[in-house]
Structures are given as structure tokens and as C-alpha cells.
Amino acid sequence: MADKFDVIVIGAGPGGYVAAIHAAQLGLKTACVEKWVNKEGKTVHGGTCLNVGCIPSKALLETSHKFVEAQHDYDELGIEVGDISVDVKKMMARKEKTVANLTGGISSLFKANGVTALEGTGKLLSGKKVEVTGKDGETATYEADNVIIASGSVPVNIPPAPIDNELIVDSAGALEFQEAPKRLGVIGAGVIGLELGSVWSRLGSDVTVIEAMSDFLPTVDNAIAKETRKLLSKQGLDIKLGAKVTGSEVKDGEVVVSYTDSEGEQTQTFDKLIVCVGRKPYTESLLDDGAGIELDDRGFIKVDGTCRTSVDGVFAIGDVVRGPMLAHKASEEGVMVADIVAGHKAEMNYDAIPSVIYTAPEVAWVGINEQEAKEQGIDIKVGTFPFAASGRAMANNATEGMAKVIAHADTDRILGVHIIGQHAGELIAQGVIAMEFGSSAEDLAMTCFAHPTLSEAVHEAALAVDGHAIHMANRKKRK
Whole-prediction pTM value? Predict the structure, then answer.
């Protein structure tokens, strides 16, 4: 038997590495197991988010957005740039450098905080033992007082479009294109599909997004989703809803996709096809039969409100458990669990977890939306404010979108904040903080916001909840 630890974390993604570092900071002897290997064959930390998810996709989104701005918007600002082009290979190199800096930074943080990095594939055995199989096939078994499972998730594959990593790729493969495909198909109009479709559309691809559901972004507030679809369609994304893919054929360097919609059987030919229809919890070879961990009918590890599994001393966090598959949700669960293991009282407010779609404009929300309030029978009052009436948005040449605040009709407590607009992913933090502190719409309305800022739209939306927005014509007289 190898060393015994106070805590062993399986997985070094945003949930796992944060849990490991925080546990070590609290004085616990901590190890973290990671099997991710980069192109050079080196074990790297950061999981999907840093290696093939959040970070690399944002690097490409930022570059492609700046390219479009230079092409179409600079002239209106009085900046003349002439003909410009994008060097995709250089863009990809910058993306790789960003990833390398961040994954290397986690390894440095492990060393600085005394976290033992175990390289290989972790498997939970009975008695809170963890078996680690290295790249060479050699195994070692470690014992812990507490185990935190943070194994993450993987893309869902669909039989009609099997991944070949050449013409048909998943979300990771879509980050590796060395040139913009002329015709690009995207199966799935969720967050990942819209972001990746936006990147390559900006760089010159004719993008068609095929979505089986008839509703666009059903988890997003209806008004925000409607505006999002309108703006993305205006940008060139051909979004087909109610279109179920039935098959695909690779032929002569092309992909022919078959799907059914309201008009019957359809086919469309692409140079590349991205499959991003969702993700599923990763538990393959993770749990020994005798480990005693219970899974639900969708393959998620069953946990309670503080991420405890069915086995005492074994916790699970992040994408492998219930709740939204978001890096920041996983990180906060990691902090909570580390605190609990160290003997502190800790909890997490699952009602105040923000979500962001990093298109342009960005879409962000926290809390419930109007349709959810209706389904739950909650009486609400709503305030909205368009960025078209924002002085800073006008100065930024970014007047698309709006901010929306939903409050309880009787208590005035903020139940949700929804934003589509420039930097919505940053602005939503105001809504998260307000909800975390149980604020009312009046609390936000009475807060002094800096001028001129985009955040004033959130202020005005809060004022509008009771009809008191200053910079809109439909004001009510204050009683």
C-alpha cells in the first residue's frame, strides 16, 4: 500500500483542481489524480475546460470577433483598415499558448500548495481506496480518509453521425480546424453549437445549425432566446429547428447529412460536420463494483445537497453529478466539499449559478425566467431596458440586446436576471451578487451605478420593474 492521504481527488478539471488546492490550503494532505495527456504525451491539468473547452473556445471566439469588427464595424468608428485577413494557423497557435500557460499554471499551484499530483487513470475501490493506472500500465493503490470524484463529462455521440475526427468531429475537433471550411454543419443549437458555429461563420464558413428541438434555447428566457436567434441569424447562421438528423454519409471528401423536418426528408452537404448534442457524465472504468457508489438512471453519481454520495467520506462534484454542467459550478462545489472535509460548515446556493453563451452579443442569465415562473405558479413583475437606450452602448457601437430583471410580485425579491448584449457575461455578476444577498429590485434600483457604463442597463431594468426607468418613455409616476 502506497501513501495514505486525507483527501484524494479523482480528476483535475475546474472542480477537481480547485477542490485539491483548497483542501491543501486547509492543511489536509491531498493528492489529485489526472489522466489527461496533451499532444506531447505529457500529463496536464485543467480537464475539458482548459484543454478543449471553455478556454480554447473563448480564445477563438475573441479572435474571430475582432476580425469581424475590423471588417465591418471599424469604418463606422472612423478607423480605416483596408483589406484584412486572418491567419488561422497563427490564431490556433495563440490558442495553444493560452492553454499551455493555464494548464502549466495549475501544475505550479499544485506544487506551491503541496498537492501531490498522481499521473494516470483513477478508479475508486471499496474502503475509500483509489487505484491509479499509469501510462505504462503499472498500478498503485492509495488510501484516503476522503475521496472527491471530479471526473467530469464527455461529448454525447449519436449513431446517425459517428465521429471520424476528420470530416465529422466533436466539439474538441472543431477547435483544431486549420482553415475555415466552406460549408460547415453543426448538429445541436445549444451553447457549444452556437459558439463554435459563430467562430467559423465569422471566419468565412457558411454555417448551418441543425437542431432537433422545435424551441430555440428552451432553458433561456423566451424574450432573450427570441432576440438571440434573430441576431445570430442576421449574422449568417442558418438555424434549422425541429430538424432531426437521421443519417450521414462521408463521400468524396464531403459529408452528406440526412434529416427530417416539418417538410419531410432533407439532405445537405458539408465540408465539415460538428456534432455537439450535449455531454454525459464520465464514469467509464471509474467505479469498482464493490465501491458502493449509486448512479441515477442517466448515469450521474447520486449526491445530496452537499455533494455526499451513498458512501460515507466519498463526495462527487461537477459534471458527474446533478445540476448544470458549468466549470464555475464545479469549482464552487469543490470549495464547499473541501471545507466540509476540513470540518467547516459550508453550503452552496444553487439558485444563484450564472450561465453564459459567449456569442456576440453575449447571452447571460441567473435564476428563473418568465416561463419557469409561470410553470411554478409564481406571480412576478418584470423590468426590461434596451441597450439601444444606453449611452455607453451607443458610444461602443454595441446597441443590440437588453437587460431584464424578474422580481416576485409581492416581496419584490429578485428571482432572475437575463441579459443579451456586449459583455453580458461580466454584467450578470451584478445579478448573481444581488440574488446571493437576497436583494429586492428596489435594492438595485436605489444603488448608484457609474455613468456611462453598460451596467446602467441593469439599473434601469431594476427601476423598470415598478415602471420607474429614467431613460424610457413609459415611466410611471412614483407613488
Answer: 0.96
